[in-house]
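Researcher: I'm preparing a figure for a lab meeting and need a structural model of a single chain. I don't have an experimental structure, so a prediction will have to do for now. The sequence is pasted below. Please return the structure as tokens so I can convert it later.
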Amino acid sequence: MKTIALASTVLLALSLVSPATANYAKKAEEQTDYIQKNFYVASAKRYRPSFPINPKELPYDFMWGNGVQFSALVGAAQHNPAKYKQTLYDFREGLQTYWDPIAPVPGFNAYCSGPGGNDKYYDDNEWLVLGFAEAYEITRDPMFLKDAQNTQKFVLSGWDSKLGGGIYWKVDHRSKNTCSNGPAAASALRLVQVAKQADQLEWATKIRDWTNSRLLDADGLYWDNVNLDGKIEKTKWSYNTALMIYTNVLFGQLQKDKKSLTEARRLADAGLAAWTDPATGSLQKTEDAPRFTHLFCESLLRLYDVTKDVKYLNAVRRHASFAYRYARDPQGGYWNKWKMVTHAPDERKILIENASAARLFWLLAPYQDTDELLEAGKQAAGKGEDRKAEGLLRQAADSDAEAVEARYQLHNVLLCQKKTAAAAAEATILTGFAKDPAKRKSLQALGWKAE
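Model: Understood. Here is the structure written out token by token.
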């Protein structure tokens, strides 16, 4: 049986290496700047749908992509207001070309077709309510709150008594979807949270109860929609469950409701079981596009912030590690499918997928990157603080499916503490890593030896 021999002097030497600098905020800024350079049309204050430009496409993106990009800019403006706050305001102005002020209940059209449009989606508007509420939270500018409140009026106009309640997906009123009810409940609660709008609490409760009664499966995941004949479309997208997790987290925060937090955990655990790829650590097991999974990541982070259960944070960091390693184009931007596949050099990139990447890394900006965790763990080990080192290195190792050095250092710290069973488990993982030539080379450079 192979064992892994490590010298404590190697660990001490490695603990003196300078800290890594590729933290989440830097990755987020890198991606945001790529979007601004390649997708943004400054004269129109709007974004193109793809890059390189496709002459057959409409010149500006639809509202789903805009909603994700607005949320990315909110994150950017929060963490680097000097650089990005004005862009957030400019884009808010550009979005007014999508607003239909003469509709029976004004709302955002799917495209910038001006007044009188009849192609409106309730979920498109809900993403913007969430974005506007967050923009108000970080700027305290009442303009954003007014935007959120006005848009929420359109959202709630999509509710009627057919099927016992629920909000339609779009104005043709053919189906009621989880994607138009989950974010509506969450946006209502965000208005309670940021503006003390008590009436929105009743709406959130009604919407959550209806969604649970009609679209929640016994496994803790949500179906896509139910049509007016009562037929259920049973595809389970990660963003549908995500917004119901977020809704339950908000209920838990606002009402000190332990049952809602317990339910949020149940849904999150079901989602992790369904969508985590054990081979890569990504959350793209059944979905290629990050436009869905960045919202699942956000819900996990919101749940972590309340529960402090690090498995939820680690899952998001693990997904981000995969994305940065395999979904990022070294020439800039992110691919549309987050899979370990070969991409053509001229493959067109889509705004919504790139905005999803930017939003993901801005969401992670307050947390330590895996490189930072590794460095902090090595520093603690070098000082003889083995318990602290173990905790930091465990997080680093569990936050990246290919964390070669973190696993190596964790194994050594466990041996120092005579935790033989845990060290043996890490040794097994390292032995598996060594089957890959590149990882074996990295381990050997660290001082790894197999007997």
